[in-house]
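pls design
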């Protein structure tokens, strides 16, 4: 539009000069100058209107971006989903700004991927008094003032979405966790075991369940009180983690019963080795305050096979094997399907 204004000015000066030459009067030149002034006023009005229209289009586009973001955030289920949607929306808001980029950093992350010599701003993502990270926006030059209200509106959508995702995750963890030991509870074990059985069917390599309980745990509760029993269960949970592989799952069914899910076994011996480590670890004395407690474990082992229909059946088989180990006096293990008189692949 400025280039058009210059053309009008040049044309106007040419008209004024021509008028002066042809009419050789200053009055004609004055009339031409008035025409030029009017033309300049019209051009300025048109330029201002054009700028206003462009600003209005940008504002409408930003509102559309924010509306689409709000709809997308409704279906976001993870923090990563929310971060991705926030960055995409910020990029759309800044699409006409040279070198603009956006990033979201989780709490504790200081690397936002922005050069120190760039211009930009950082917006704290907080909701309900909790901090969920930072939205960083930068560009090659100073950000125009008109984008800041849109960025604030974006923050107003993203922060509550992160709070909602965090709350959902926390409630899910509570629903699937044993509050005393921090291990998975019965619901989590059934969920993980179902997935393990599905993978075992696809790979042809069995999954194993080790179900154990503690011999003498009731006597500990009766003699020393439930607070000591609770501390003992927490210590047992820690020892179980030390006995299993990183990929194994440890959970608590309830009371003094625990479960280990182990996958991708080459033979029954793989599961028996884990059981032997558990028996040896829990056969050792566990110090709880001034008390030195010993509650040997009876471990039942069951492996998946074509006739196992689901998690509950495999747990039932492991439970039956555990009671056979318990009948031998505790502090041992038994593999389902192995006759009582034979050692369980030791």
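designed seq:
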């Amino acid at each position: 539009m400025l280039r058009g204004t210059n053309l009008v000015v040049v044309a106007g000066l040419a008209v004024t000069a021509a008028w002066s030459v042809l009419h050789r009067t200053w009055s004609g030149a004055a009339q031409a100058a008035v025409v030029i002034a009017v033309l300049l006023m019209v051009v300025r009005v048109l330029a201002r209107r054009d700028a206003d229209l462009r600003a209005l289009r940008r504002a409408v586009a930003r509102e559309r971006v924010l509306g689409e973001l709000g709809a997308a955030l409704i279906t976001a289920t993870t923090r990563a989903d929310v971060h991705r949607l926030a960055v995409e929306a910020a990029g759309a808001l800044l699409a006409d700004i040279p070198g603009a980029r956006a990033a979201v950093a989780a709490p504790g992350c200081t690397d936002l991927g922005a050069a120190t010599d760039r211009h930009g701003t950082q917006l704290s993502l907080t909701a309900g008094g909790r901090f969920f990270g930072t939205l960083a926006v930068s560009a090659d030059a100073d950000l125009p003032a008109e984008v800041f209200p849109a960025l604030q509106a974006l923050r107003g959508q993203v922060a509550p979405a992160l709070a909602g995702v965090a709350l959902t995750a926390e409630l899910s963890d509570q629903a699937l966790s044993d509050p005393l030991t921090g291990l998975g509870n019965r619901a989590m074990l059934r969920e993980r075991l179902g997935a393990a059985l599905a993978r075992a069917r696809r790979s042809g390599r069995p999954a194993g369940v080790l179900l154990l309980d503690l011999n003498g745990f009731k006597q500990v509760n009766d003699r020393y009180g439930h607070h000591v029993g609770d501390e003992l269960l927490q210590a047992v949970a820690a020892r179980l983690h030390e006995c299993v592989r990183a990929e194994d799952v440890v959970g608590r069914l309830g009371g003094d019963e625990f479960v280990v899910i182990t996958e991708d076994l080459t033979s029954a011996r793989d599961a028996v080795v884990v059981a032997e480590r558990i028996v040896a670890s829990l056969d050792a004395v566990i110090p709880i305050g001034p008390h030195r407690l010993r509650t040997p474990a009876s471990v039942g082992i069951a492996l998946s096979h074509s006739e196992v229909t689901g998690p509950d059946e495999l747990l039932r088989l492991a439970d039956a094997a555990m009671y056979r180990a318990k009948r031998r006096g505790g502090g041992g293990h038994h593999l389902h399907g192995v006759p009582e008189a034979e050692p369980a692949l030791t």
